[in-house]
Design goal:
By secondary structure, the chain is mostly helical. The protein has 2 domains: 19-82, Winged helix-like DNA-binding domain superfamily/Winged helix DNA-binding domain (Arc Repressor Mutant, subunit A); 88-235, GntR ligand-binding domain-like (Four Helix Bundle (Hemerythrin (Met), subunit A), Up-down Bundle), CATH 1.20.120.530. The chain is 66% helix and 2% strand. It has helices at residues 19-32, 45-52, 56-68, 87-103, 107-130, 133-148, 153-170, 174-191, 201-216, 220-235, and strands spanning 72-73, 81-82. A two-stranded antiparallel ribbon has the order 1-2. A hairpin with a 7-residue loop joins β1 and β2. The longest helix has 24 residues, at 107-130. InterPro entries: GntR_C, TF_FadR/GntR_C, Tscrpt_reg_HTH_GntR, WH-like_DNA-bd_sf, WH_DNA-bd_sf.
């Protein structure tokens, strides 16, 4: 009886990686391993060419990729410098993709609002537990700054973002602060044209003041309830005008 031999007709192509990608991997490893620290000046293009045995185009393309990802800053007339690698850097890399996703379907705005509410309720609970007197003082200053911008929608919104971002910082967790900053940026920057106000700015200020009072008293449950009410009401401001 003839024995069937398995046929291997699937082809896998092995492609050569670009030199710039290989240089990029080496440079990224130097940064993440600590061989190059935040604030350090990057080696010159000539030094990198000699080190890796590649031409200037490969080095420049790798450096530009590092710059685009936020790992280094390229300044004209100066040597590139290494940036701090933190949660903010990671989220900054995904901002453009996040905005693309949010604009791809109307339902994504609602999904983002739901995600923001879930995140901020946990955030304010931690802030109520950990906030210092300095945190509370800063929050009160931001409420008054927002009050000064009544009638100026853009500045009022910017102050609103600053207030919520400062609560995130009061949670004493840099990842929470970075995620909050990114999420608010996605919500307000992209959807600013969908945001309309209906004379409720005074209500917003009163709600912000109440949240600060509860944070100052370290009332976790009260702060969560106040933030929930605030987000439920303010969510209605993000609706497309008909």
């Amino acid at each position: 009886m003839a024995q069937n031999t398995p046929k291997h007709d699937e082809r896998e192509k092995i492609t050569r990686r670009k030199l710039s990608d290989q240089v990029l991997d080496k440079l990224r490893e130097m940064i993440t391993s600590g061989a190059l620290s935040a604030g350090d000046v990057m080696p010159s293009e000539r030094a990198l060419m000699d080190r890796f045995g590649v031409g200037r185009p490969a080095v420049r393309e790798a450096l530009q990729s590092l710059h685009n990802s936020g790992l280094i800053t390229i300044s004209h007339g100066e040597r590139s410098r290494v940036n701090a690698v933190d949660a903010g850097t990671v989220l900054a890399q995904s901002s453009e993709i996040a905005r693309l996703v949010l604009s791809s379907a109307p339902a994504n705005l609602e999904h983002l609002k739901q995600a923001r509410q879930m995140f901020e309720l946990g955030m304010v609970r931690i802030a109520a537990r950990t906030a210092t007197a300095a945190d509370v003082a800063d929050l009160r200053i931001l409420v008054e700054r927002q009050r000064m911008h009544l009638g100026d929608a853009t500045s009022f919104i910017e102050a609103d973002v600053a207030f919520h971002t400062r609560i995130a910082q009061a949670a004493q967790n840099p990842i929470i602060a970075s995620v909050s900053h990114a999420m608010l940026g996605w919500l307000f920057d992209y959807h600013l044209t969908l945001l309309h106000w209906s004379g409720n700015e005074d209500i917003t200020l009163a709600e912000h003041t109440k949240i600060v009072d509860l944070i100052e008293r370290h009332d976790e449950e009260g702060a969560v309830a106040a933030m929930s009410n605030h987000l439920d009401r303010s969510s209605d401001a993000f609706e497309a005008k008909e």
